[in-house]
TrEMBL record, chain A:
It is a peripheral membrane protein. It comes from the Bacteria. Belongs to the ABC transporter superfamily. This is Glycerol-3-phosphate ABC transporter ATPase.
From TrEMBL, chain B:
The keyword Lipid metabolism does not apply. It is found in: Cell membrane. It comes from Aquamicrobium defluvii. It is a multi-pass membrane protein. Keywords: Cell membrane, Membrane, Transmembrane, Transmembrane helix, Transport. The keyword Transmembrane applies. Its main location: membrane. Pfam families: BPD_transp_1 (PF00528). Belongs to the binding-protein-dependent transport system permease family. This is Mannitol ABC transporter permease.
Length: 339, 276
């Protein structure tokens, strides 16, 4: 039980509108990621759902129940904060037990539940420790423990991994996905990291300037971005955008080509350019090429030692992988017109 | 030569530290020493540093002439009463200003502080007249009320500063976990700001204990705390330095002991958040 519906949700701080009009339907048990650049309103949207911010207009429904003005605790949602927000003066045990204690649960029930949760999160040896005596990953697990102990209808994660180092981030990512598979409850996860979004989400809401630009599965976002913002945000390195005569050839204001959809050759190809910079990542090489116009084209290719800065080469985009956008930046659907 | 300069500097600073400490402590030491002298020796010139014959006579006489213990109890009641009631008002006030600030919060804080910048004597006549018509002159509730009101701005300011140090995330987590405002206060906010709360209380106890202006103006016999009791030894009949010193020593000893025991806590609280 944990479907969440946002209906015309609006949030303004004074005269500044942060979320103009958010509409979203999240199914029960779904793992949804809000992704976008910093300041795009994704955290505000999460806080509105949590009840930590009061919406200016619109409604929030959880399981069909209108909770727009309900107190955070009454929404049956648990939240994991970026800073973990553990209670520093309490032991791990007391931190995890806190929500049950607030709910007036009996002491022996609490003890059993804390044991269960601590076991599932490998926290048993640390129950008596204070948060400051734990590592970052352990603190994160305590925060998760505190969230799951209440068996909430849904979980809200606010950039929970951004304080961890890269290796730990990967393993915690797996742990959270595993948690979702085990609990099958609704999760909303906010991040600015598109890799986290792509690897964890059932569906992703890509946000920009307070608007939800597109809400779809990771692969659909990659394959069929609704506009230039989504096309540029999903995928790494970023999609190449080319305007002018080359785009007009395809009947579009702008065309987009993913770095992985470009073939190159020394002596022949559609466009000619000079290699500006070569980044050897080991398994693959990322090449930045300046075309004879001002356009810079980035593409990735298997390691090849003939690719050196200053060399002139030829490239050809794969015709079936060219995205077309109109003057407003919206994707133009339909088959690509070959010249 | 190179290693001599830091050593010299350190020695000079140590000397300076001791000099300042002695300068500050000397009046207290002198009071205590004088309290063990005879009245004649106390006004002798040139003054003798050590009492020639250590005597407890002054203490006996002070206790005989004026009921020390009664005044002591008044001081305790005044300090604790104004502190406890003050905290009950200051904690909610500081909470709302720190966590639910309105556009005018900063102005309210400044306005509260500005009342401490006005000389208390400016309000004496109206306060005296109000107290007179309300029948509060020389009563414990009356003097507690005025000391409480006088110290409230400091308490609110201090608590506000400590509360501001608590990360907003933690209080939000608390709300997500289902805590009411009251539970949030009891289980999270107060334990987390304990050093600050303790030093606010301590400072207020000390301020109330040492309050002399209002106690001298608004109490006489029944409600007079130790600060008023000392002053009764500088009377129109003349100054009795030795007895005055004995009375002063008796008055400051309790607060000196409290201060001594809690100085670590007090310093920690007063510098809370200064170094992070």
């Amino acid at each position: 039980m944990g479907s969440i519906k946002l209906d015309g949700l609006k949030k303004a701080f004074g005269s500044q509108t942060v979320i103009p009009d958010a509409n979203l339907e999240i199914a029960d048990g779904e793992f949804v990621v809000f992704v976008g650049p910093s300041g795009c309103g994704k955290s505000t949207l999460l806080r509105l759902i949590a009840g930590l911010e009061e919406p200016t207009d619109g409604r929030i429904l959880i399981d069909g129940r209108d909770v727009t003005h309900a107190a955070p605790a009454r929404r049956k949602l648990a939240m994991v904060f970026q800073s973990y927000a553990l209670y520093p003066h309490m032991s791990v045990y007391q931190n995890i037990a806190f929500p049950l204690k607030m709910a007036g649960e009996k002491a022996d029930v609490i003890r059993v539940r804390v044991q269960e949760v601590a076991t599932s999160l490998d926290l048993l040896p640390y129950l008596e420790r204070r948060p400051r005596a734990l590592s970052g990953g352990q603190r994160q697990r305590v925060a998760i423990g505190r969230a799951i102990i209440r068996q909430p209808a849904g979980f809200l994660f606010d950039e929970p991994l951004s304080n961890l180092d890269a290796a730990l981030r990967v393993s915690m990512r797996t742990e959270i996905s595993e948690l979702h598979r085990r609990l099958r409850s609704t999760m909303i996860y906010v991040t600015h990291d598109q890799v986290e979004a792509m690897t964890m989400a059932d569906r992703i809401a890509v946000m920009n300037a307070g608007r939800i630009e597109q809400f779809d599965t990771p692969l659909e976002l990659y394959r069929r971005p609704a506009n230039m913002f989504v096309a540029g945000f999903i995928g790494s390195p970023k999609m190449n955008f080319i305007e002018g005569a080359r785009a007009r050839e395809y009947d579009a204001r702008t065309i987009g080509i993913r770095p992985e959809a470009i073939d190159w050759s020394i002596d022949s190809g559609k466009w000619r350019g000079r290699v500006e910079r070569v980044e050897h990542l080991g398994a693959e090489t990322v090449v930045h090429l300046s075309l004879d116009t001002a356009d810079i084209l980035t593409f990735r290719t298997p390691l090849d030692e003939r690719l050196v800065a200053g060399r002139t080469i030829h490239v050809s985009p794969r015709e079936d992988s060219i995205y077309r956008f109109d003057g407003e930046g919206r994707a133009i659907p339909g088959p690509k017109r070959n010249p | 030569m190179r290693s001599l300069r830091p050593t010299l500097f350190k020695a000079a600073m140590t000397f300076l530290g001791w000099a300042v400490a002695l300068l500050l402590f000397f009046p207290i030491l002198w009071t205590v020493l004088t309290s063990f002298k005879s009245e004649v020796e106390a006004i002798a010139f040139p003054p003798a540093f050590w009492p020639s014959g250590w005597t407890l006579e002054n203490y006996f006489e002070v206790q005989e002439r004026s009921e020390y213990f009664g005044h002591f109890l008044n001081s305790v009641a005044l300090s604790l009463g104004s502190t406890v009631i003050g905290m009950l008002i200051a904690i909610p006030a500081a909470w709302s200003m720190a966590f639910q600030p309105a556009a005018s919060t900063r102005h309210v804080l400044m306005w509260m502080l500005s009342t401490k910048m006005m000389p208390a004597v400016g309000a004496l006549v109206p306060v005296f007249l109000i107290f007179k018509s309300a029948g509060l002159l020389d009563t414990l509730p009356g003097i507690t009320l005025i000391v409480l009101v006088g110290n409230l701005p400091i308490m609110v300011w201090m608590l506000y500063t400590y509360f501001k140090e608590i990360p907003a995330d933690i209080l939000e987590a608390c709300r997500m976990d289902g805590a009411t405002v009251w539970k949030e206060l009891v289980h999270v906010l107060l334990p987390m700001s304990l050093p600050g709360v303790a030093s606010t209380m301590l400072l207020n106890i000390i301020l109330a204990w040492n309050e002399a202006f209002w106690t001298l103006s608004l109490t006489a016999v029944k409600a007079a705390p130790l600060s008023a009791f000392i002053a009764s030894y500088s009377s129109p009949q003349g100054l009795f330095w030795a007895k005055l010193s004995a009375a002063s020593t008796l008055a400051i000893v309790p607060i000196l002991i409290i201060g001594w025991i809690s100085q670590k806590q007090l310093v920690r609280g007063l510098t809370f958040g200064a170094v992070k």
